[in-house]
# Entry
Amino acid sequence: MSKIIDGKAISEQIKREIAAEVANMIDHGQNAPHLAAVIVGDDGASKTYVASKEKACHSVGMTSSVYRLPESTTEAELLQTVEFLNNDPEIDGYIIQLPLPKHINEEKVIAAIKPEKDVDGFTSVNAGRMQLGLPCYIPATPNGIMELIKRSEIETSGKNVVVIGRSNIVGTPMAILMSRKGIDSTVTLCHSRTKNLPEIVRHADIVVVAIGKQGFLTADMVKPGAVVIDVGIHRIEDPTSPKGYKIMGDADYDEVAKVASMITPVPGGVGPMTIVSLLQNTLKAAKGEVYPK
# Structure
């Protein structure tokens, strides 16, 4: 059976480190880092996620603000909010919670975010700087995965890595980060149209599955002893559960865990690291580590 990569425990360790830095900043007369979030509409998953971010901020001593806008908010009105946040000196970083209502152009809104405050790492400026290996805000989920790999002492040099999924939020950044000097992996980026995908995955020492399909990665696709990082999160109805549902990932966990040497559970693997990575980026923003103030 695989060793579990405990994202919850690792995220708590990082939170303690962040809390110590925040306390030190306050002790030296600086303001606590301030993270803002903008949420448009009443999407349940988005509201839950923003609430988790608020809670995480407070747990490390950061200031948190949430701008809750109605579903009817126009694109122009949202852009006005973005402009306000760009120019508010008290806010170190902010996020626009996705998805946005269909009548709002997400790309246009993201493009309006000031790169210095783009702690989600979604703007073209931060994406381009990441591609070039320059200081930037790395998207939270890939950044969290890199922390999991580092703190779990998973060997990456010379290893074959297969990333399944090519989104700009997870898959593509992961492929870039895993190929960086110092990580030194050989990366194959796969997606839904990749031919002979199972055969390609079976050669991987590390598999990052972020394709958005529940149970997609099966045990017969995994090389014995490989490390599996499961980014997927799916709410599946389960009458036997007190909540009426269970959370599952992109991997068939019970079967894959019998083959892999290490695996992230869902929940409790990548998820907690995503939120703590956002806190790390906010701390960097407050300290001027990426874009000097």
Notes: The mean pLDDT is 95. Residues 140-270 form a domain with the Rossmann fold fold (CATH 3.40.50.720). Residues 7-27 form the longest helix (21 residues). DSSP finds ten helices and eleven strands in the chain.
